[in-house]
Automatic annotation (TrEMBL):
InterPro entries: F-box_BR-signaling, KIB1-4_b-propeller. Pfam families: Beta-prop_KIB1-4. Residues 403-435 are annotated as: Disordered. It comes from Panicum hallii var. hallii. It comes from the Eukaryota. This is KIB1-4 beta-propeller domain-containing protein. Residues 65-345 form the KIB1-4 beta-propeller domain.
Length: 435
């Protein structure tokens, strides 16, 4: 009589979690999570090591990534990136914008894509000091009455779109997660932000942050969007728990950054807002300087939130981006060091050094080390930032291209594409192809 097959899904949670912490790579994590629901729950994506997103050519359909744990670079062929510039990386999705200021969310690892409303005249007026208007589907900067060749000369080029419209867009949740996905946009030069609900809103809504200086970054933390201006002042601009149809901003004057803290980045870790920065010491006699990496945290639920110094984050590893504001932390897994910060680029790198390098900071010691270059820079650009792969499809067949003529859907529509398949060419690189 044949023996019954063991029920692997009934393994103890503690044992599954112990196994999950010993998985050596992202590929192992993906295989483990695909077995069944209990196995998937034992290894949340917070422990799934992120990849470094490298700059890409909008005339190409190839996007490159770097895996720190495996010390390899690989490329994906993504036709949807051609003719677009990146304006964000959030929740494992890329945010792309074309010359018409139309916005697309793309999961580079599953091929799923989502359309968001394009920029309109209201967004254009709030985003730039210059007057921008749309003619025949494209945007132009106007100065008085111009036409013909003069108008063509003032056409906003693709590489200029971020400096005129959406500088960066941050999501509250993956658009296929089965819950509300709010997109919050940092405008090019404005104290206002713009937001929309994927699959619900037909246009962006502007919101005054009540900050005195232009907004530099947006962070989603504790179900709230925080707008942070160029001086480090913070305002709560949107809360998922709010009942008002139009949210209002609430500045947090108690959260002014410590004096002298430079290169500030913000992220949520263990339910609290964290700030990472560099405290610089200058030697006036020699014109040289040194800096020490420092971390602060606060609880937004406190009556008067305040920054407190953090000297040890335990088993956590922090990943901080210089270009996009998407930064995050996760429990350390194999090949990632604990109590360490991985910066996407050196904080004080040589602008003439045409190679991509990581900076790794020891939190306890406050010291940093710039690693050897792993890739030549594309067009002399910095790495765009970290992206944590989201390999799992949520609402199947739900997300599609934004349609200006009809926005009656109550939830975002997803358009699926063939998933990229990994093909190992050699020990030093991994390439992907569509299947």
């Amino acid at each position: 009589m044949a023996q019954p097959l063991p029920d692997w899904s009934s393994m103890q949670k503690e044992l599954l979690e112990s196994i999950g912490k010993r998985l050596a790579s992202g590929h192992d994590v993906a295989s483990f999570r695909s077995a069944c629901s209990p196995w998937r729950a034992a290894v949340p994506f917070a422990t799934f090591g992120p990849l470094l997103l490298l700059p890409f050519d909008p005339d190409s359909d190839t996007v490159s990534f770097y895996c720190v744990s495996d010390k390899t670079a690989f490329s994906l062929t993504l036709p949807d990136v051609r003719g677009k510039v990146p304006c964000g990386s959030s929740c494992g999705w890329l945010v792309l914008m074309d010359e018409a200021a139309s916005v697309t969310l793309l999961n580079p690892f599953t091929g799923a894509r989502v359309g968001l409303p394009p920029a309109d005249d209201h967004v254009a007026a709030a985003s730039s000091w210059e007057c921008a208007s749309k003619v025949h589907g494209l945007w132009f900067l106007r100065s008085g009455n111009i036409s013909g060749n003069a108008l063509a000369a003032n056409a906003i080029k693709l590489e200029e779109m971020r400096s005129v419209f959406f500088h960066e867009i941050v999501l509250s949740a993956p658009p296929d997660a089965g819950r509300e996905c709010v997109a919050m946009a940092v405008l090019a030069s404005s104290t206002e932000v713009a937001f929309c609900r994927a699959g619900v809103d037909s246009a962006w809504t502007l919101l005054d942050t009540k900050l005195e200086c232009s907004v530099a970054s947006i962070v989603h933390c504790q179900d709230k969007f925080l707008a942070i201006d160029v001086t480090g002042e913070i305002s709560i601009v949107f809360s998922s728990n709010a009942t008002d149809a139009t949210p209002t901003a609430t500045p947090l004057p108690s959260l002014s950054p410590p004096s002298g803290l430079c290169h500030r980045s913000y992220l949520e870790s263990d339910g609290e807002l964290h700030m990472v920065g560099a405290m610089v010491s200058t030697f006036h006699d020699t014109q040289e300087f040194t800096y020490r990496t420092m971390i602060y945290k606060c609880n937004l639920l406190d009556r008067a939130p305040e920054w407190t110094r953090v000297k040890d984050v335990g088993d956590l590893t922090l990943f901080v981006s210089k270009n996009f504001s998407e930064s995050f932390s996760g429990t350390s897994v194999t090949k990632y060091k604990k109590n360490i910060i991985y910066f996407s680029e050196p904080l004080y790198g040589d602008p003439f050094d045409l190679a991509h390098r990581l900076e790794v900071a020891d939190i306890a010691a406050g010291t940093s080390k710039v690693k050897k270059p792993f890739s030549e820079k594309m067009l002399g650009s910095e790495a765009l930032g970290w992206i944590r792969p989201n390999l799992w499809k949520g609402v199947s067949g739900a997300i599609g291209k934004y349609d200006e003529k009809s926005q009656t859907e109550a939830s975002p529509k997803v358009t699926d594409a063939p998933e990229p398949a990994a093909e190992v060419k050699d020990a030093g690189a991994v390439q992907f192809k569509s299947t």
